[in-house]
Amino acid sequence: MFEYISTHFEWQSRMMVEERKRLLFVSMTRARDELIITGQFVSHGKRGEYTYNQFLEAAYECVGQHFSPEDVEKMRKERDEKKKAEKLLQKAKEEADNLSAKIDISSVS
């Protein structure tokens, strides 16, 4: 019984992949000027042990580019660092504005 369930889930999973491939093909062949493809970069897994989205490699190949998870991880880290830096800068600006307001108030008194 468990073998049947396992086989059924494998078959169902393959069918889902084939349907997604079909939809990607249809969208790629029907796009006129531009096609924007969205989705998850990582299908599943823990940090450092990711399973990458299998369709990204095919999409990159279609436009003549090389798919590199390392490049994307590097961009992700850079983006995260930039967000942190922006938050720190915003906090520093707010603190400077608060200090400036306190100085203005005390100079008037």
TrEMBL record:
Instruction: Tell me the SUPFAM superfamilies matching this sequence.
Output: P-loop containing nucleoside triphosphate hydrolases (SSF52540)
Q: Does the keyword Coiled coil apply?
A: yes
The entry's keywords: Coiled coil
| Any coiled-coil regions, as ranges | 72-102
Superkingdom of the source? Bacteria
Q: Coiled coil: is it a keyword of this entry? A: yes
Write down what this protein is called.
UvrD-like helicase C-terminal domain-containing protein
Q: What is the lineage of its organism?
A: Bacteria, Bacillati, Bacillota, Clostridia, Lachnospirales
